[in-house]
Queue: 2 jobs
Job 1
Amino acid sequence: MDASPAWLPRHSAAPLREALADTPVVCLLGPRQSGKSTLVRRAFPGRPYFTFDDATLRERAVADPVGFVAGLPRTVTLDEIQRVAALLPAIKLAVDEDRRAGRFLLTGSANLLLLPSVSESLAGRVELVRLHPLTEAEKERAPGRLLATLLAGTLKGGIRPGTLAPAALMDRVLRGGYPAAFRRARLARVRRWHRDYLTAIVERDARDVANLRTLSHLDRLLTFVALQTAQLLNIETLAKHLAIRRETLQNNFAALERLFLVRALPAWHTDDARRLVKAPKLHVVDSGLASTLVGLSADDWLTHLDRFGHVLESFVVQQLIAQGGWTDPDIRFWHYRDKDQVEVDLVITRGRETWGVEVKAGATVTASDGHGLRRLAEQCGTSFRGGMILYGGASTFSTADRRVFAVPLGDLWTR
């Protein structure tokens, strides 16, 4: 196998194969340039493959959707399906006539569940598999089992000398997970790729996923969101700051969500949630893109620790959500914040079972670092299963609450 990062094995391949074994339509969703085409072509090399980035093919499909689908091979891969959303009703009809497993493997660079014209056609007939940008575990060819270890309750203490070198952590955060960016040797070249990517995706794909009158607001909104990553989402404040109408801002934000550039992490709450903040938290999905947009440099862990801390939080949230895709399909992700400004960066639930994760850039964990997790545990009662404080040290150890462990950030890519 090619040793370049573009050909690294992807952990999403296993759930993709499992879905194709018993489901007529499977759609691999993820950002453009995250490796979807590479994965489907290498995982299923004998399967006929067509991409709707081909303008001629796209025009044929739009002109005669039913005829186009009727002329396809018995099993087929259709790449970038969001570019021909009109094809989905024809795929629905074909599947209703023949529900053989594995007939259609689709890929999409937009979240089809958030496209109103698409969701009705797919309902009940498709399984969605997520492909995120490369995780740090995938880069290191590690199993990516830290989240699974937390959920299983098998975190164990272990004393190791040293700390995580800030320069090594910064390099991972600044590069992010897009294979083409990760492959570049110099960070200046990585940032150039990020800028070109954002220009291309806004100009090329934004109109496919949202009814936007103009694209001029998207760049400004994305930059402002990067400055606000890991902070609460306030639509009114965003609209006022950017001097645009609320409706326009909501449409633009929806486009960024559908293109997998940003995520709104919902607030965790209980039935008695009067003292909990309900606003979602903003995150730029890829820390490399966020770093480029805000001009974060390798020295900012010293000079702009707050900004680095926010981008680091988004980085960790992305790593664990990606691990969730191959760990357990029933888990959900949230954030916690109450009226006293007590926070937990990431809350993980499976039914009523609840775990919490805090992110800390420093190499020392103190009793105050677990305050948010203690508050979350009080809210959960017997449903609280444990948590971890990811930090820049090298040792794993239990805190005063024996269910909560301090865990090195490096375990994200070594476990």
Note: The chain is about 45% helix and 15% strand.
Job 2
Amino acid sequence: MNVSLTPELEQFVNQKVESGKYQTASEVIRDGLRLLVEREELHQTKLDELRREIAIGIEQADQGKVAPLNAKETLARLRKKRQSRRDN
């Protein structure tokens, strides 16, 4: 497989090899690809969680388990939940 890089990316790869952290350019590329896979897996996990939460909400709404929406309280609760996830 051949990969073409922009001059900036090629320079970045070369700098990583020159730093001694990596032995070859291939190691740098493999590490970058591993991170990309990890990021996509995390994204998919978050999407799956969101879909589960939406399904629960739809089920609760279908059962009449709903309350009036208070936008300010809901946004504050969502922000707090998002911040706690970032902290973990």
Note: The two ends are 38 Å apart (CA to CA).
